[in-house]
Amino acid sequence: MFNRDRWKEILEVLTKNWFRTVLTAFGVFWGILILIILLAAGKGLENGIRSDFDNIATNTMFIWTRSTTKAYDGLPKDRDFNFKIRDVSLLRENFPQLRFISPRNQLGGFQGTNNVVRGIRTGAYNVYGDYPEFIEQEPMMITRGRFVNHNDIEEKRKVAVIGQGVVRELYDPGETILGSYIKIQGVNFVVVGTYRKSSNDGNGEESQKQIFVPFTAFSQAFNRADNVGWMAITAKDETSITSMKEDIVSFLKGQHRVHPEDQRAIGYFDLFEQFNRVESLFGAMRFIAYFVGILVLLSGIIGVSNIMLIVVKERTKEIGIRRALGEDPWSIRKQILLESIFLTLISGMAGISVGALFIYGINAILDMNGPVDMFANPSVNLGVIMIALTILIISGLFAGFIPAQSAIRVKPIDALRTE
Amino acid sequence: MIEIKDLHKSYQMGSNSLHVLKGIDFNVEAGELVAIMGSSGSGKSTLLNILGMLDVADSGEYLLDGLPIKNLNETKAANYRNKFLGFIFQSFNLINYKTALENVALPLYYQGVGRKERQEKALKYLEQVGLKEWSHHLPSELSGGQKQRVAVARAMAAEPKVLLADELTGALDSTTSYEIMDLIQKINDLGNTILVVTHEDDIAHMCKRIVHLKDGVIVEDKKIEQVRASQYVQ
């Protein structure tokens, strides 16, 4: 295949009619360009949406209690109940597939009243009582100091990790933050760390204005006893939380003497399911990109096939001479196929290059003008390029197949007679 | 070199069939220079095509240097043509985008001869036909006589057992024709077996034996006194 004479001939044939070759090549070029751009645009949208999910452990559900709607086991309906801290260890024992179980408590809330005081400054922030594992479920960048650790939990230390937004509002620039005290609903906490979250969704601002304190210290300081506000549960990667949620919910119903058919008593939110819904949207987008791209490419391929047929027709006599001189039919077929693949591949690679250049340009513009909602870093990876090249080679083969057959179908004696 | 026994060939022309060769028996020894003559429609080209494995006989035997030529698939036929036969055509049939040298080297390329050796050999044969200094010209830059010389060199390049020439002077004026025949005679003098299909008497008489075909049968087969073409060439 890597034979100098063969390649020389391929180039001779293809350059003999420059204009026609370029026009033919353009069809393939255009098809692959559109495929690449569509895929890149889809990827850009995907990246944009995915960055909203950030690095959140997506195999996660949130679960909380509401009041019962059915009387059960001697207990009346409309009963309020709470998860207890022992539910966490029970879940851990009964569901070994779970990776993290973080009980949480919360103080304050969106547009709540001012609950945090430092000197003469006040602010309204969400205050959470958390376990150290929580940072694995909702990643944040610790910019100073540290996050809550197990010693804090054991000793019920009154320490706090505060967001950049809190720092901005409660501190002067340049002030020492670590070791300073803030008063949360009258209780003093020492700041041991600051964080920043890198989400750019709607409540980006809000997510920088949170305060995390040890769960145990929270319970003690704000009189929550052994109650748990809600739980964030993450399953191990090999099991999906969606498949486990029914079991978890009915287990907790059993623990809290809730009627098994009470749909209202325990509420939950399945992040994984939501995420998968978005994932399938990405899948659909990719499918459309490939579908449209390949259809456009197909028309280019048909163009190549068409031209190859004409080339073969023009060369009928020449092929006859070659066969009389003893070139075997396979060699001729190979020649036509290689010409077709070569033409397809070259024009396809030109398409890929121009597509890459285009994507590079878009990225440069995006970088200059700052981030855009729901669109970030459009790109195609090496895998897609490989797929595109494979498609090209296969389609080149297909485009050359019929012309190659027609080249050797003519008997040499008839081919010699044509003028 | 060539042995043919009771060769038949007919073509289907619509509903009726045309019986072109009606039992040809014919032998050629090594080193012969044979002219096959006949008017058009006598079957001489068909005979040459069958001898050249470009066409297949309906029945009969064909032995080439003791090798039975029978039931060949295209690949095998191409292989045999390449190894055993050299073709010279009326219309030269050079490949017009290849230089004289590349044209001559083509049969060697199909044999898988290395590039360098191929070019050396091709140049040697071009020299033999007196066109060494034209080796890098395209066919379009050569005269008819020169083109036919290149074609002769090409036919010789693979060192075939038999050269088959189909009306090789048909497209040339008489002076050039004699030059080509002179070349053919010289090649024959070296011991090559050559079959020439022609309808020109003077060309036929430059061979050593004339076979007359008429309506698909051999009507006359005689050895003749060869007329040397060199006397007509300055």
TrEMBL record, chain A:
Q: Which domain of life is it from?
A: Bacteria
Sorted alphabetically, which Pfam families does this protein's record hold?
FtsX, MacB_PCD
Q: Which UniProt keywords apply?
A: Cell membrane, Membrane, Transmembrane, Transmembrane helix
User: Can you give the residue ranges of the MacB-like periplasmic core domain?
Assistant: 21-249
Keyword check for Cytoplasm, yes or no: no
Query: Which residue ranges does the record assign to the ABC3 transporter permease C-terminal domain?
Result: 291-411
Q: Which InterPro entries match?
A: ABC3_permease_C, MacB_PCD, Macrolide_Exporter_MacB
Predominant location category: membrane
For membrane topology, the record states:
Multi-pass membrane protein
Its localization reads: Cell membrane
Q: Which residue spans traverse the membrane?
A: 21-41, 287-312, 341-362, 382-402
Family the entry assigns: Belongs to the ABC-4 integral membrane protein family.
The name this protein carries in UniProt is ABC transporter permease
Q: Which organism is it from?
A: Robiginitalea aurantiaca
From TrEMBL, chain B:
Tell me the CDD domains matching this sequence.
Answer: ABC_MJ0796_LolCDE_FtsE (cd03255)
The UniProt similarity line reads: Belongs to the ABC transporter superfamily.
Report the PROSITE patterns cross-referenced here: ABC_TRANSPORTER_1 (PS00211), ABC_TRANSPORTER_2 (PS50893)
Record-annotated ABC transporter domain positions: 2-233
Q: What is this protein called?
A: ABC transporter ATP-binding protein
Keywords, ordered alphabetically: ATP-binding, Nucleotide-binding, Translocase, Transport
Molecular function (GO) terms for this protein are: ATP binding
Q: Which organism is it from?
A: Robiginitalea aurantiaca
Question: Pfam families, from UniProt?
Answer: ABC_tran
